[in-house]
Amino acid sequence: MDSYLSENFGDVKAKNSSEEALQRWRKACWLVKNHKRRFRFTANLSKRFEAEAIRRSNQEKFRVAVLVSQAALQFIHGLNLSTEYTVPEEVKTAGFEICADELGSIVEGRDVKKLKIHGGVEGIINKLNTSVDDGISTSEYLLNQRKEIYGVNKFIESPPRGFWVFVWEALQDTTLMILAVCALISLVVGIVMEGWPKGAQDGIGIVASILLVVFVTATSDYRQSLQFKDLDKEKKKITVQVTRNGCRQKLSIYDLLPGDIVHLNIGDQVPADGLFVSGFSVLINESSLTGESEPVNVSELNPFLLSGTKVQDGSCKMLVTTVGMRTQWGKLMATLSEGGDDETPLQVKLNGVATIIGKIGLFFAVVTFSVLVQGLLSRKLREGSQWTWSGDDAMEIVEFFAIAVTIVVVAVPEGLPLAVTLSLAFAMKKMMNDKALVRHLAACETMGSATTICSDKTGTLTTNHMTVVKAYICGKIKEVNSSKASSDFSSDIHDSALAILLESIFKNTGGEVVKNKDEKIEILGSPTETALLEFGLSLGGDFLKERQRSKLVKVEPFNSIKKRMGVVLQLPDGSFRAHCKGASEIILAACDKVVDSSGEVIPLNEDSINHLNDMIETFAGEALRTLCLAYMDIHDEFSVGTPIPARGYTCIGIVGIKDPVRPGVRESVAICRSAGIAVRMVTGDNINTAKAIARECGILTDGIAIEGPEFREKSEEELLDIIPKIQVHTCHLFDFVMARSSPMDKHTLVKHLRTTFQEVVSVTGDGTNDAPALHEADIGLAMGIAGTEVAKESADVIILDDNFSTIVTVAKWGRSVYINIQKFVQFQLTVNVVALIVNFSSACLTGNAPLTAVQLLWVNMIMDTLGALALATEPPNDELMKRPPVGRKGNFISNVMWRNILGQSMYQFVVIWFLQTRGKATFHLHGPDSDMILNTLIFNSFVFCQVFNEISSRDMERINVFEGILKNYVFVAVLTCTVVFQIIIVEFLGTYANTSPLSLKQWFGSVLFGVLGMPIAAALKMIPVGSV
């Protein structure tokens, strides 16, 4: 079966599947009872084609707009532009001087001419009644006025579907429709032949069963939809830094209004259409909107920023002009939201399993119907009444047809692929509580197969709460882990050296010191920037005064490729000065001078370079993150277009930043080792810092530590020689640490592990440059706190607390999902096999089927919706992390499952066959009702076999299946409901379900047959079959 599934349904991957593969498996699933339900949680390919058409249209539109704006710029300065725009009355009344449509046409059309007519960016700011420094007012009345005139920053979504929609979809099941027709015929013929109410009993029984199946199915599906709705809300919680009422604050992108001043940094998503106000080195990636991969430079000359695009480099202030459905991104997202998530590999595989079993079931149903009809014809031939047909004969044929259709209902396991969705929805909801937000369904199940985790250091293995604890400045090394120590240190430093140090800290930064809404000082920025700014303040520095002292001319923001940040300042005397900071050894290599103990600048010689390198290694050996600060005076003129100098700097000093290891990381790494998952640290930090942290975490013992530059220089052959040493082996996990790595080093490592060595790789990332590795990995894990929007969008799972222990929890839940679905498949296939063989063999050998249509519908509900609820929602246990991972090549239906399915099916078939042949004698059944009682006994024993098999299926390999059973309330509730309904059906609904009340002895016998299945299941688990 696995080879058939791989051949026909194996092309769909956990991520980045081709459209052809998605189309191919849909065509292979021709036997589907309910298209609406089966394909509800799969991608809507037609909507995706529609979204792609919008992208192509945008690409052409923006290409034309750029050409037009470039042409306009050449002539615009020499023209006298006339203002033809008339402000609508309602806009004037609200206190604004430009309407939403005019604003939209300026930015979306990149209309330079219109922008000039309105007075440029400054004119638009005035017309929107806002301020660059203070932003818009937070008065509720004024905010509502803006919303009325310009709209809100939300796109139209399809309305949530109510419960009755799911009921209607459940009714679309073809086999249930056919059964409803059979029920109608049975009602009509029965009432004509036997009158009301006796003649209507069979028909009413089938109708009631259909309605029960429909409502239970609809309830389950509706609950799933609510879970997904809650998760969608969490995915959309995106915040940006905004200035309102003169205060910087975090605001949801859905609360943005035209006039807002938004602060954008590298990795942010542009939250609305807007105009560039001020900033440095801004590169915008517009591929999500236009398909163009080449980044666009945004500046005063090209100030247009489009919603949905990404900040690839630089930082800026943006004026929001257009929001919501007036933007192209809003229109695109409205279409994309209906496109849905890609289906997961397990969903596709189980669709394949359902198709195979459905074909077998259809064959058995046709043969069963043929045999039953042939039996009726044979009897009539013997009686010589083949030419006279009564209503009873017609009723019998309708009953035969209903049985055949019900065999198809039972045989086509529509619930198999939906059980995946149920299990994933349950897991995703629980993982949300465990601080992991799953963005793509497939990530849940793929994480269960993970063999390698490539983890960042900062913020994942460490707390990301950074403080400067040591500094080496002016030849002096000091502990600065308290305000008193910092104050003492500042008094030991020469005034000129302190001044240049504070200038470097406060001017060469991506952070800010601002007042929040409560008028309290707040430091904004990355943890590293925050630590440096705190250090600067503790030295007695004043952020605002320092910022006003000189003018920023150029900024090159930090990124993980350059591993440095640089700025150029224009000093009050008109001269220029450059500052840079970054990876200590990289900045030190760019220096040829140093500030000495008297504050004088002296040349660097070999001894002083060695001394500084020793300081770096000493700091790094103490697991401190080291940064070097440097400056240089530029004696020539400097323009914005000139690159910041790369060499010739004066070293100010080195700071050591403490970022403690998170509590519980060492234990989590040990859990990964016992689970057969290799943990590798890939960091941009100094190699000695990386090794010290890796040893503290338990990642590095005797393994390999390598720097990025050395890794990059390796040839393909050398990489193939190194990487096997860091593979997962059953006997040992080799340690691996990569320091000073670039994002492409991480991408290269991931690609080799996945393709060459067939590992299932999960990767953590937080920066914009991590996007390629997150995209390449089987499971991309973005950091929720430190991560940029670009990283989050490229990821499959967002770790909301940035904690490595949460990644281990995700792996545990992934394994739980995979095994839960295996357990459900094992249980359902057992029921399928037994129900098919029992009805088929009985029809062939005795001429009648012991399980009626109503009974089979009840069995179908036990194994389908209720079985999925019980087994697919089992929470994870610690034992899951003590077994090896499935990996990339593991078979979904394993030898263990086949052993349990075949063994349990054989036992149940023997029980049913024994009852059919020896049941009357064993239970002393005599009289006219003996056949009815025997069939009830068979039905009851069959159901209790499933009840106890469900308990045995809680664990496919362990004999003790009762451990933790009472903690799983869903499982207990499902079993209780099943038993209670079974008692009601047998004892009170016999008229409609074709059952007869049973004696205490008969009940005991039925339950005993079910209970005996448990020791049989335990004995089967002792038969070794291998795990493949």
UniProtKB/TrEMBL annotation:
Q: Where do the TM regions start and end?
A: 176-197, 203-222, 356-377, 397-427, 969-991, 1003-1023
Q: Which InterPro entries match?
A: ATPase_P-typ_cation-transptr_C, ATPase_P-typ_cation-transptr_N, ATPase_P-typ_cyto_dom_N, ATPase_P-typ_P_site, ATPase_P-typ_TM_dom_sf, ATPase_P-typ_transduc_dom_A_sf, ATPase_P-type_domA, Ca_ATPase_N_dom
Catalysed transformations (reactions): Ca(2+)(in) + ATP + H2O = Ca(2+)(out) + ADP + phosphate + H(+)
Q: What is this protein called?
A: Calcium-transporting ATPase
Its localization reads: Membrane
Q: Quote the SUPFAM superfamilies the UniProt record gives.
A: Calcium ATPase, transduction domain A, Calcium ATPase, transmembrane domain M, HAD-like, Metal cation-transporting ATPase, ATP-binding domain N
Which Pfam family name is an example for this entry?
E1-E2_ATPase
Residue ranges of domain Cation-transporting P-type ATPase N-terminal in the record: 117-191
SMART domains recorded for this chain? Cation_ATPase_N
The role this protein plays is: Catalyzes the hydrolysis of ATP coupled with the transport of calcium.
Keywords in alphabetical order, please.
Answer: ATP-binding, Calcium, Calcium transport, Calmodulin-binding, Ion transport, Magnesium, Membrane, Metal-binding, Nucleotide-binding, Translocase, Transmembrane, Transmembrane helix, Transport
Recorded GO cellular component terms are: plasma membrane
The entry's family comment says:
Belongs to the cation transport ATPase (P-type) (TC 3.A.3) family. Type IIB subfamily.
Q: Which residues form the signal peptide?
A: none
Tell me where on the tree of life, at the top rank, the source sits.
Eukaryota
EC assignment:
7.2.2.10
Is the Transport keyword given for this protein?
yes
Topology relative to the membrane, per the entry? Multi-pass membrane protein
From the UniProt record, which GO molecular function terms apply?
ATP binding; ATP hydrolysis activity; calmodulin binding; metal ion binding; P-type calcium transporter activity
